[in-house]
Amino acid sequence: xxxxxxxxxxxxxxxxxxxxxxxxxxxxxxxxxxxxxxxxxxxxxxxxxxxxxxxxxxxxxxxxxxxxxxxxxxxxxxxxxxxxxxxxxxxxxxxxxxxxxxxxxxxxxxxxxxxxxxxxxxxxxxxxxxxxxxxxxxxxxxxxxxxxxxxxxxxxxxxxxxxxxxxxxxxxxxxxxxxxxxxxxxxxxxx
Length: 191
Fold this sequence. Notes:
With 191 residues, the chain is mainly alpha-helical. The chain folds into two domains: 97 residues, no CATH class; 79 residues, no CATH class. It is 44% helix and 8% strand. It contains eight helices and three strands; from the N terminus they run H-E-E-E-H-H-H-H-H-H-H. A three-stranded antiparallel beta sheet has the order 1-2-3. A hairpin with a 3-residue loop joins strand 1 and strand 2. Helix 2 packs across helix 8 and helix 4 packs across helix 5. The longest helix is centred in the C-terminal third of the chain and has 20 residues. This is DUF1985 domain-containing protein.
């Protein structure tokens, strides 16, 4: 149903037409639901790429491109051994790319900047919400524009699920069932 009802996408919002009503999903909605930073400028986070990144150098060698599937493989193999600090860094990177950014597992390339953010500890201050929302809009816009009215959205992002449920909670039980009246704060709000 969701696939057929998208009315439009701009760089600022997703418009969905449901039962004669147009719903708007904006970055503000995304920020409220996810609890992630959506307001800072991503360009304020600059790193010297001439210096090697410790995680990349130690665990990925001299590879220029690191995919999410390579990260998952290294994580599954626990390549960090007894180094708990690096284990946490791997977990943070995997969490960001699997849950926050909801990226496709095999072809997604992880930016060097993401490794630098985690290595430096500045990932805590980074506007992941803005990046996640922008990637969602870009992905939807590209898929709808090129493929017509059908598209596949890998890992339906949690913020979009919550928003969709809150806006469309009167559907029959095959689509959604309300189990509690409390609005939960997501695990995205752990930082």
